[in-house]
Design the sequence.
């Protein structure tokens, strides 16, 4: 398939969630070209969306969870695998809970949905990624290696720590092989894991209707195994769903030994890092174009403060001083700037080869700027604003090296030494994060 694809029309399915055990309604909707796959929480105010990208992965304990701020979607891998298996690049997955229905523990029901409504080829070309060199990951007992290839193939070996039920399977992944060889493989667990999973609230909706349980040498299931190697094939199903978080269809031969969701997502990050290398190299060494539109930073006005004046007011110091300049203070409103440089120390670990400014530091920048206007308003000295709480926090877009973070804050309530403020961070005029913060003024 050389063109991007989406669904012909929307398709719905209801069931229980594996973690919560609650009823979940899911609808998969068509989406335009180049929009990718995203989840939409229709049960929450504003219907927040989370892109199915590895940058948004927050947890990988027994399943893959994506998050933006306080909004989470658990166990995304089975529905993502169904879309990836059929080569669907663009879709919106609406949910009225924090996880898709677990169905029977495989992707079979999701495949039936897609088959029922059909697939629509879009005019735009599909972008494939072929690795420029082998990519390898060694993480605990897991080894994963991706070699360049003309198609996408998975060769996988799975086993538990005791070496029980060691299985091997290999296949080229096409819509036909996906539907026949992988999609029906159910999730499984070992009997001795169940107590831990129950105590940690991970399988409130789990049963033999949606999982296979292995006890010693016995296999507990409501029906015969669907494949001779059902366990390793389910591992391959998970790989397909987790690697779809790269946002691109991959052409390569993946060889995996004892994969896991944590390793799959880390491997997806390595693929994304290699994807971005040519772009970074071009940005580093290529001469600038003759004309380039650079977003202008707002001009300084009344109440502007330079870094020396800011440091007299705030006790924060590098690397935790997140305000470079105050552009203006007008009543209860303030506008400040943070220039995001590749030299920021947090980029060393967030993330290596894929630098993104942590959202919590944008929140801290809002709090620091709010503290400036409150202290300035009170004309006090030798005082500090203590960050107490944050509400309505939303992170909308990633902030990367080279961005100019414009921080706009308005005090909404001041009572004694307690203040509340609403802040937004912008890059090139687009809101990248926002929050309502509460803080207290105390003597140093």
Sequence:
């Amino acid at each position: 398939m050389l063109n991007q694809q989406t669904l012909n029309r929307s398709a719905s399915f209801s069931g229980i969630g594996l973690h919560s055990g609650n009823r979940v309604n899911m609808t998969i909707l068509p989406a335009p070209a180049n929009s990718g796959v995203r989840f939409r929480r229709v049960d929450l105010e504003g219907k927040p969306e989370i892109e199915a990208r590895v940058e948004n992965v927050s947890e990988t304990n027994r399943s893959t969870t994506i998050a933006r701020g306080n909004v989470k979607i658990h166990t995304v891998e089975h529905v993502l695998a169904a879309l990836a298996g059929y080569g669907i690049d663009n879709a919106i997955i609406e949910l009225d809970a924090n996880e898709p229905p677990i169905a029977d523990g495989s992707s079979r029901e999701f495949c039936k949905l897609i088959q029922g409504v059909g697939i629509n080829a879009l005019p735009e070309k599909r972008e494939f990624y072929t690795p420029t060199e082998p990519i390898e990951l060694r993480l605990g007992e897991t080894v994963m290696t991706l070699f360049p290839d003309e198609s996408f193939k998975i060769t996988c070996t799975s086993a538990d720590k005791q070496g029980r039920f060691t299985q091997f399977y290999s296949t080229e992944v096409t819509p036909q092989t996906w539907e026949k060889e992988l999609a029906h493989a159910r999730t499984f667990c070992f009997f001795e894991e169940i107590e831990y999973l129950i105590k940690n609230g991970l399988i409130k909706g789990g049963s033999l209707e949606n999982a296979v349980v292995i006890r010693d040498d016995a296999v507990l299931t409501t029906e015969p195994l669907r494949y001779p190697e059902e366990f390793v094939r389910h591992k391959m199903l998970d790989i397909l769903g987790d690697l779809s978080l790269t946002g691109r269809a991959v052409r390569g031969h993946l060889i995996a030994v004892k994969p896991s969701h944590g390793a799959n997502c880390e491997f997806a990050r390595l693929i994304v890092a290699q994807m971005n290398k040519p772009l970074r190299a071009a940005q580093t060494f290529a001469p600038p174009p003759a004309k380039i539109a650079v977003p202008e930073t707002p001009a300084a006005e009344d109440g502007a403060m330079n870094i020396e004046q800011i440091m007299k007011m705030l006790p924060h110091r590098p690397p935790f001083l997140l305000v470079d300049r105050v552009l203006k203070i007008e009543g209860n409103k303030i506008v400040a700037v943070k220039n995001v440089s590749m030299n920021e120390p947090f980029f060393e670990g967030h993330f290596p080869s894929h630098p993104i400014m942590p959202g919590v530091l944008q929140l801290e920048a809002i709090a620091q700027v709010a503290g400036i206007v409150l202290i300035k308003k009170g004309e006090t000295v030798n005082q500090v604003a203590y960050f107490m709480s944050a509400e309505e926090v939303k992170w909308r877009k990633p902030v990367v090296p080279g961005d100019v973070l414009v921080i706009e804050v308005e005090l909404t309530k001041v009572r004694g030494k307690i203040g509340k403020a609403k802040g937004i961070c912008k890059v090139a005029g687009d809101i990248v994060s926002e929050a309502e913060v509460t803080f207290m003024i105390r003597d140093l």
In short: The two ends are 64 Å apart (CA to CA). The helical segments are 77-85, 108-117, 175-182, 194-199, 230-243, 261-285, 307-313, 359-378. The mean pLDDT is 88.
